[in-house]
Amino acid sequence: MGIDHEALARLRANVQGTVYVRGDDGLATEVACFNPAIRHDPDVVVAARSEDDVASAVRFARDNGLPVRVQATGHGAEAPIVGGLIVSTRALDTISVDAPARLVRLGAGVRWAPVIERAAEHGLAPVTGSSTSVGAVGYTLGGGLGPLARTHGFTADWVRGFRVVTAEGDIVTADANTHPELFWALRGGKGGLGIVTEMTLELVPLTTLYAGSVFFEGDAIEPAFRAWVSWAAELGEEATTSVVLLRVPDVEGAPPPLRGRTLLSVRFAYPGDSATGERLFAPIRRAAPVFLDAVAEIPTTAVATIHNDPEQGSPSWIRGFMLDDFDAADGDALMDVAGPRVQSPFLALEIRQLGGAARRDTADGTAVGGRDSGYTLSAIAADPATFDSAAPAAAEALARALRHRISAVTNVNWAADLTDPTTFESAWPAGVHARLTEVRASYDPDRVFAFGPS
Question: Side-chain half-sphere of 234: how many Cα atoms within 13 Å?
């Protein structure tokens, strides 16, 4: 690795957390990914316990020529990290709610679940993601599209400030008044800008939702899906919806009512009264015989039940797209290549409807990419035997079938290989990408933070 023992000793003396080097017990556990198919192999890991630990780690990496990457919960890992230094921020888990100001300040290792719980004590809620086990900061840096996207926009739209360790190892505040260009870039620019140690997020006054999901199986799947396509196209922005085709394996750990079945799940979230929500959702209930119905008034603390994303990681392969639009003909094309009558490697094939507030940028502007798209499409495989060939081939078949709909910009959280220059550039509109490039060059001219094409 080329790092002398004295340098490592000084680093260990300067930090409260633990410093691991390749081969040390505990390193693999510290940087374990939600997707266990991805295993990192860095030279050094600093398990930070404070903001100063992060700064010490960055200065050490600069002095020793090590590229720096950051990981909190491991949900965002798309490829193995080999070499360099990983700063693990999972222990930065403080949460502080200022209820009168409707703000929450949270550390870089915090997951959504405790934020939701703490906010709910004050009749407030964060604009969160679909999974409450995901790290709040990493999710938000890419924009963040959750079950309230059409009514409340991207989560990044609600950020009011960051604490950041720069490439020089300095600790700065980035908000609308201090380092405003860095603040702009961090709301959607994802990486290559610094290590966020803390985020301040505005909360919304919300205690309940009319929300959840209904399931269709067998012959009801295709008519329910086609009904969803037509219904979603007419749905006002007062509600958010998505749909997913699930092939649930007959294995231990799968939800018992769904185990071994192929189903269609329609998700719905309306942040208003139950009577209006029920009326808005009625066309889906009438579309076909319902297998399971779990749409009802729920507290904001139950927001994770809308999508029912897995809380425990398992091997997975994911391909994401953003779509300009999606109509009945596109629905037919999707059913032809990946519907329930087709042998498919995908455990889940999900479409989320966008638009509404997600399309509108904030008054001061953000770097979020993908606002102009109408839908997202995600294909997820869970059998490692399909990862090298079958899953990529099936995803390419999807791309061909919907090529006229695939957006020019795919939000960075949905993008695949960010080391590919074309993929990386297409994560933002051209003007935003150019401005991000300038901000990254300003705050990290030596590319201390490894992000994007090398």
Answer: 9
Whether the Cβ atoms of residue 249 and residue 314 lie closer than 8 Å to each other: no
Please state, in angstroms and rounded to a whole number, the distance separating the CA atoms of residues 199 and 160: 8
Q: Are strands 346-353 and 296-299 parallel, antiparallel or unpaired?
A: unpaired
- Which among 115, 105, 124, 103 has a CA at the least distance from the CA of 73? 115
Sheet holding 44-47, edge to edge: 18-21, 44-47, 85-88, 68-71
SS3 348: strand
Beta strands 124-125 and 18-21 are unpaired
Neighbours of 234 (CB within 10 A): 7
| Adjacent-strand bridge partners of 187 | none
- pLDDT in the model for residue 1: 52
**Dist. CA 240–CA 232, nearest whole Å:** 9
| Closest C-alpha among 405, 453, 451, 409 to residue 429 | 409
Q: How far apart are CA 14 and CA 179, in angstroms?
A: 27
User: DSSP secondary-structure letter at 361?
Assistant: P
CB atoms within 10 A of CB 177: 9
Residues β-bridged to residue 217: 263
Question: Which is nearest to 143 in space by CA: 129, 131, 163, 133?
Answer: 129
Amino acid at 245: L
d(CA 40, CA 227) in angstroms, rounded, equals 43
Alpha-carbon span 328 to 350, nearest angstrom: 16
d(CA 75, CA 131): 10
C-alpha dist (Å) from residue 400 to 74, 225, 378, 405: 31, 20, 15, 10
pLDDT at 238: 97
Query: Splitting the chain (454 residues) into consecutive groups of 10 residues, what average pLDDT does each group show?
Result: 82 97 96 93 97 98 96 88 96 98 98 98 97 95 97 98 98 98 98 98 98 97 98 97 94 81 97 98 98 98 94 90 97 96 95 98 97 97 96 97 97 92 96 98 97 92
Token pair recorded at residue 68: 């720096």
Bridge partners, 263 (sequence order): 217, 246
First vs last Cα of the chain: how many Å apart? 20
d(CA 273, CA 18): 49
Residue 70's beta-bridge partner residues? 87
Residue that the structure tokens 């051209």 belong to: 430
CA dihedral 162, 131, 374, 342 (to 10 degrees): 150
